[in-house]
Amino acid sequence: MEAQLIMPITMNPEDRIPVGGKIYISLQDNDRYLSLYKEFTLIKTIDKRDKAAKRLFVTEAIELGAKPGLLAKVLQISRQSIHNYIETKKEFGIEGLLNGYNLREAKV
């Protein structure tokens, strides 16, 4: 069996957008795909059109140290949406986040 060399994914520093805490976002293919990096290590890439994946992407970026205001600006969403994603994940876990559970309905 031959050993395969795995090449690290490199990111052009000009293509990355800092969002705080050594966390960077990269947009590809006319902003269709989002990549999340911690320093120069690729964490994940998602299709921006997948709403559930985008919610999880946002919460993971925040957990890694991204600043909500900077992240909101780059992703063109409100800070309130980011707050709601975080609170939904705390209240209902990943299932609630992915399925769009509503915090207001849970508190009634």
Secondary-structure topology with pairs:
Layout: E1 16-18, E2 23-28, E3 33-38, E4 41-47, H1 51-64, H2 68-75, H3 79-98, H4 103-106
Antiparallel strand pairs: 1-2, 2-3, 3-4
Helix pairs in contact: 1-3, 2-3
Produce a short descriptive summary:
The chain is α+β, with helices and mostly antiparallel strands and 108 residues long. The chain has helices at residues 51-64, 68-75, 79-98, 103-106, and strands spanning 16-18, 23-28, 33-38, 41-47. It has one domain (13-101).
Name the quaternary structure.
Answer: single chain
Distance between the termini: 61 Å
Quickly count the helices: 4
Order of SSEs: EEEEHHHH
Architecture overview:
- With 108 residues, the protein is of the alpha+beta class.
- It has one domain (13-101).
- Helix content is 43%, strand content 20%.
- The protein has 4 helices and 4 strands.
- It has helices at residues 51-64, 68-75, 79-98, 103-106; strands at residues 16-18, 23-28, 33-38, 41-47.
- The protein has a 4-stranded antiparallel beta sheet with strand order 1-2-3-4, with helices on one face.
- Strand 3 (33-38) and strand 4 form a beta hairpin.
- Helix 1 (51-64) crosses helix 3 (79-98) and helix 2 packs across helix 3 (79-98).
- Residues 5-9 have low confidence and may be disordered.
